[in-house]
Amino acid sequence: MPSKTLISPNRRITGQLVEAGKIRFGPAYYELRIAPYDFTGRRFLGPYVWSPQSRFLAVTESLAESYCDGPHTELLMIDFLDETECPLSKARGYIVPLRFEHPLIIYQKQFRGRQSEREFEIEYRKLDRWRPLLKESNEEQTTGQSANRPKSDSEGGFKPQPETEGRSL
Q1: E-assigned strand segments in 51-162
Q2: What is the Rg, in whole angstroms, of the alpha carbon atoms belonging to the chain?
Q3: pLDDT tens-digit profile of 17-46?
């Protein structure tokens, strides 16, 4: 299956989005592989953007796919210096990271049923939702199997974030 190579602007961090399947009537989804971090059991979509200094990667994570309601996605920010991640915003539709404008990330929410797109901005470093990145275990590094992350619940737990999280542009 096709994959996308992720190379940071300073070329010190590399990884891959490896195609793992296709959302019914939608885009392909991918496994995110950036050693030594463990993203096992999570699905990511193709759009991503690096910060100019290569510290941050913003990527779209697919939380669930409902045939009635459409996709549920989340904009995820990864901080490679502090080895943390932060969910920035959720949508019933697609979230596409567009660009960094220090100290903001600019992103777009695309709503399928309404055929509308809106841009938002958020000061990601001020958020209190940062959590440690999981690292691959030695077993996973040698066998390719995750030993420390349960599979995510792809059908439950979705709650739309209030629009106050990001300011509409």
Answers
A1: 56-66, 70-79, 84-92, 94-101, 104-111, 116-122, 131-132
A2: 16
A3: 999 988 777 788 999 999 999 999 999 998
Q: What residues does each domain of the chain span?
A: 3-139
* Cα–Cα distance, 146 to 24 (Å, whole number): 26
Question: Could you read off the pLDDT of 43-59 as tens digits, one per residue?
Answer: 999 889 999 999 999 99
**Angle at 93 (CA atoms; ends 149, 65), nearest 5 degrees:** 50
The CA distances from residue 124 to 13, 127, 142, in Å, are 21, 6, 35
Structure tokens at 155: 């059908």
CB atoms < 10 A from the CB of 163, how many? Answer: 12
